[in-house]
Here is the input.
Amino acid sequence: MHSGDVHGGHYYGMIKPEKDSKWYRYDDERVIPVTLDDVLEENFGGDGGVTSFSHNGNLTPQTRMARNAAQWKRFTSAYMLVYLREDAIPEILAPITPRDVPQHVVQRVEEERLEAIRKRREKEEMHLYISIKIIDLNTFRHHEGIDLASFDPQDKEAQDYVRAYRVRRDLTWLGLYQHVAEAYSVGRDHIRLWHLVNRQNKTIRPDVPIPADPHLSISLQLCSRLMIAIDSWTKNSSARGPDLRLYMEMAEDIWHPTVPVLPKRTLPAPQPPQITSPLRHSEEFKDPKEQSHTSSGHSHSSSKSMSNGDIELENTSGKDLIEWPEVGKLPGVYNARHDAAMILIFLKWFDVDNQRLRGVRPIYVNRHDKTGKLTPVIAELMDWKQEPGDPPVNIAFFEEIKPGMTEPLKPNATFIASEIQDGDIICYMRALPPKRYLPLNPYLPSFF
Here is the structure.
């Protein structure tokens, strides 16, 4: 059957699979029973002047009155008819047995059945899980737009560098650290997760770090937060949206060239916390020791389910202890929004020659230092050397505030005076005479 006109349409079939069965319409993946009128009367195209099926089984012309009362345009036409010899009907339309069905069809139907069960179960258990998306330095370096990364699901290329997890809502932060560290094949104390928040200026930036090891926490309140389920934590935080977004910082990414010695807070004497292992739940959990043997790294843009298991707290010796810069505010200890001297910012380079803005790396700076202190660091990082007879290397810095907006930074102003905080992005470019870039756009704000 063809439904449509000469310009296009849709094909389907009318089949009577067995001698005494009904007629069925086979329309792609839909198979529905139809009446005899649907088969014999509705597939001749045209309008009016068609025949109707009578109760005695004979085809009779419609009367003029009935035709005029029920005249309409038909768009379905039968273009292929299959006739069977009457003496061959019992053999050709014999009941179908399992042996008559090709194996690949059986396998395909079984796969679709299992997939339907999986989707139904996933929908029923949706309230038990939360989606978590994690970005890292590799994500930032491959991103050329606003912010640190793109979370737009339509941007398929960007999603290759965003790691997606599906975790139980009662999973603790400690459990998440355990699973993420195993996915990256590193120790749990070698990573630090930052909460990405939606700022009022429509940007997504790291806000506060979530400590990795409760043994290193300086307060019982902070230590207990690690044992809180992620769902409970997000309800009391500024997290908004269908998923939780995190930035994963690795120990090898720590870089503070302008601060030779990391400043320390004056803290109350720490008290050893009493922590018990979280309860195991769900059959989806695998023993961490088994996972360490079977894990071969994490594939990009994958989705894994996680749950709490028997998580053992790591014992880190002094020589292996990672010295994470102290940033932000520690809950229960300080009242100021930013009480630490160090802040984490992200550097982007505006490549004038290629007219591209790309992420470079994160850097820790002392917020009481002047922004101009970054000039020699960037010059060495980019290998920008002063050639004989050329003026000194001049680097211009801009703060990426929001989509379509940047502001220049004064080299003699401090980071704190420039209102730079954790998670902010500073873009830089090498400033040369305008004639050097005559056919190009030499100014970063114009690029935005």
Remarks:
- The mean pLDDT is 75.
- The domain at 123-320 is CATH 3.10.20.90 (Ubiquitin-like (UB roll)).
